[in-house]
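testing teh design pipeline on a random one, pls ignore if ur not involved
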């Protein structure tokens, strides 16, 4: 091999190794700076309203569930946290048995902009009892709580097993829970499971009454389940998989929200 060529070989090897390192470093950097999927668990109960004892174990369980599935989860009961600057960090908001009027006008507007920007929303149990006189929130969550009979065993019929929240459930799901009845059910919701009201004692026996549902709403995604009244629910693997499926749907592919889109939706 000519001497000149032998001299160039180490230089060429050095250049190739340097380029490879640069590409790997760039890929690693990109992976690190990609925003995380973050969830905010909100569980405020208005002063004087009924507060579910299951909120505390529920917060711990849902936070652990998120973190075990690659999501960062924060919790708050401070409605003052509802600002654009704070909410834009989150891929989805989980209202865990929040109850009654918890927001002022500015906080309500921040929640609306969050959804319009593409944010995800999930309600658990008495979340349908939140902001009962705010029509926009009723449409977002899908219905407003009215009444429930005594806590007892009942049966849920899973009518759509293709969703992440229901694909693992039995066709007839027997549970011990506080069964909710609603008013102003949004006709656009996609019902996943219905409550067989003939399987428990109740003054109301509405056929095919909704128990869990989802829908796209004004740029965002919303999921709700009526389950989750008791502490034991948050130690129930089947129920927690149901919760995980709801959160997964609400998040979708959200990493960063588009507040320019929020302004466009508001202007419609």
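output:
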């Amino acid at each position: 091999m000519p001497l000149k060529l032998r001299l160039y070989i180490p230089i060429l090897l050095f250049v190739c190794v340097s380029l490879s390192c640069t590409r790997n470093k760039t890929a690693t950097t990109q992976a690190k700076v990609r925003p995380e999927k973050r969830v905010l668990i909100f569980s405020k109960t208005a002063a004087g309203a009924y507060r579910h004892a299951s909120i505390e174990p529920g917060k711990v369980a849902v936070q652990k569930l998120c973190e075990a599935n690659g999501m960062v989860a924060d919790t708050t009961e401070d409605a003052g946290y509802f600002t654009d600057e704070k909410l834009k960090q989150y891929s989805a908001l989980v209202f865990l048995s929040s109850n009654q009027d918890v927001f002022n006008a500015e906080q309500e507007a921040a929640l609306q902009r969050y959804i319009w920007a593409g944010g995800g929303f999930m309600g658990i149990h008495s979340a349908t009892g939140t902001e009962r006189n705010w029509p926009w929130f009723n449409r977002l969550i899908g219905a407003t709580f009215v009444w429930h009979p005594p806590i007892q065993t009942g049966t849920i019929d899973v009518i759509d097993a293709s969703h992440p929240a229901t694909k693992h459930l039995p066709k007839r799901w027997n549970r011990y829970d506080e069964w909710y009845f609603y008013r102003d059910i949004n006709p656009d919701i996609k019902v996943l499971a219905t409550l067989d009201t003939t399987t428990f004692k109740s003054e109301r026996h509405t056929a095919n009454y909704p128990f869990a549902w989802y829908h796209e709403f004004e740029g965002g995604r919303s999921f709700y389940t009526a389950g989750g009244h008791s502490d034991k629910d948050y130690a129930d693997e089947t129920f927690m998989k149901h919760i995980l499926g709801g959160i997964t749907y609400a998040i979708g592919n959200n990493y960063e929200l588009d507040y320019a889109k929020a302004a466009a939706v508001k202007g419609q």
